[in-house]
Amino acid sequence: MENMKFTEILQLNKGLVGTIQAKTYEIGILSNVTVNSIKEILEYSCRTNEIEPNIEFGNFDNIVQDSAVFKNKDIIIIFYDVLNIVDQITEFFEDLEEGKYNSFKIKLFTEIDIIFENLRNSPSVIFNSFSSAYYNHNNMQVSKIDTFIKELNTYIEEKKTNNMSIVNIDKLFTQIGFKNSIDYRFYHSSKAPYTFLFLKNYVSMIETIFLRNTGKLKKAIIFDCDNTLWKGIIGEDGIEGIDMSPNSRLGKFYHLVQKIAVFLSKRGVIVGLCSKNNEQDVLDILKNHKDMILKEEHVVIKKVNWVDKASNLRAIASELNIGIDSLIFVDDSDFEINLIKDQIPEILTIQVPKSITDYPDLILKNIYKYFNLDLNNDDAKKTEMYKQQFERENSKVSFSSINDYLASLEIELTIVKNDKAQMPRIAQLTQKTNQFNLTTYRYTETQVDHFMTDKKHEVYAMFVKDKFGDNGLTGVCIVKEDNNDPKNVIIDSLLMSCRIIGRNIEFVYVKNIIKDLAEKGYQTLSSKYIPTKKNAQVEDFYEKMGFNLIEIINEEKYYSLDIENFEGKTLGYIKINKNNNIK
Amino acid sequence: MEDIRIKKVLSIVFEVPIELITEDAAPDHIDNWDSLGHMNLILALEEEFDVSIPDEEVGNMVNYKLIKLIINELLK
Prior knowledge:
The complex is a heterodimer of chains A (583) and B (76).
Chain A (H helix, E strand, L loop, with lengths): L5 H11 L7 E8 L6 H11 L3 E6 L5 H7 L5 E5 L2 H5 L11 H21 L6 E4 L15 H16 L4 E4 L1 H8 L1 H4 L2 H7 L5 H18 L6 E4 L10 H8 L9 H16 L3 E7 L2 H10 L12 E5 L3 H12 L6 E5 L2 H10 L4 E4 L7 H12 L6 H4 L1 H15 L5 H7 L2 E7 L5 H10 L3 E2 L7 H9 L3 E10 L2 E14 L2 E12 L8 H15 L4 E6 L11 H5 L2 E6 L2 E7 L11 E3 L7
Parallel strand pairs in A: 1-2, 1-3, 3-4, 4-5, 6-7, 6-9, 7-8, 9-10, 11-19, 15-16
Antiparallel strand pairs in A: 11-13, 12-15, 13-14, 14-15, 16-18, 17-18
Chain B lengths: L1 H13 L20 H15 L5 H4 L5 H12 L1
Helix pairs in contact in B: 1-2, 1-4
């Protein structure tokens, strides 16, 4: 998108109007400079990601007051540009006397406090760092304006809340060049300082936040081998002839890409291989090649064979139990890249660039956009868990009945309630879970925090382990007391990670939550199923659970359950951990 | 050649069918041609023709004929 003309974006965006089948994503933009040209660029970016945006601008230079008005938007983007802040001062900034400097600073701190306080419970906020790039005439001394901007940036870093992402504007200026970012002609005539190029790159940079908030991040990256993980082709150059040495001119770029792949595998991203080769050759290289950093332990899934890559990638998604659109595929060949683009357009493809020096950068740019690499303890363990999943799948075969098999797993559940330590993981699960998700409501940490604190809400989380390993927190259920009937309670969200599907855990999990709700004195339970492209597997979950279907409105199914008469399935092979039962 | 490209930019930026962009096209008969629209128009013309329009000309490009004149001048 960064390389498209504004008019192209306008046209393509117009073509996408009305094609996105999704709940409207409400976007508020607050600014003290004119940024209206961002509207169509942001709309286009959203629509290419299957998000249907509704953008509303606040009044010009009215951020403080409008932050209270916009706080319930799904996302609020704030452009509080230092250009128009400094213009409030009548003196030349460097000539400001200390008293005035300080009172001006306090005024801004107070404004920031009010804005942040107003938006404290908003789902998601984007705030830009203040830039001193506008004032780069004196780079040999620390000027007053430099100090001022530094103090502002330190202040926002200190005060920022969990729901807030701070965009480092200076890095963006550096990336595209300051002169290409700011156009003073329109700043002076219309208070609009940003160029199209800046706005396009800005939107592209914040895209990751939109993907995260709407559950559209990727889960796996699948690499081809020849000329993708190393220079050369096994079949032509031989195992001795391939090159990924940190000390060779071309090999070092492949070396760096391997280092990135290892890093990803430790951050919960699934790393896989899909290559047309003899499997034994590739295994041999993974095990024995001295320059190979990416080892078998980092690779969760391998399809090394002579089958076409579209079939292999489909098989990978299905074996990992993740959506096909959760894959990124990296390959050097025009043929393979075009095949996947044509056959499975949902897969994001990255082609190894002809200019190999650009290869690691291209990979890095994409992984930071499409993966949430926030360091969350649970993620680091995931690679190990996916491997255990395969051991489980493999041992499935040898049991005559599925119940014998499930019993052999020695499954244990632990359910906790309103446990604030689990907030980040719970929010992450609501954002990422697509398949076993009855309503697919996405929540940020701030919202989860609110539910945990609020007396009318309960947030249940479930931990699952079995003899093969610990799956960690893999189930979430959020319930809410009915405002019109205090004896009725409503299931707002019910979801489970795909890692634990297929073991009947859901029945025991929900039964125990219902038990807890009964103890709290609720008599009836309402629930609903909202269909999406991905959650068909749970369309009759509530029927199986014993709920009564009340009505279907716009394909959404509404249910009710009489808690007192609820029995539920008894599954002896799933143990509820009594020591840590619902607190 | 430039004529069509200029008309196309005007048509896309102001969301008006290209056949309505006549020689007389001006802010008076095009709703979206306000000050913000004018800014988008200038920036879009710069992208389209890879030129930089000087500050003093920005305010002069207030109808199709003048735009054509100035763009052709810049392309020389």
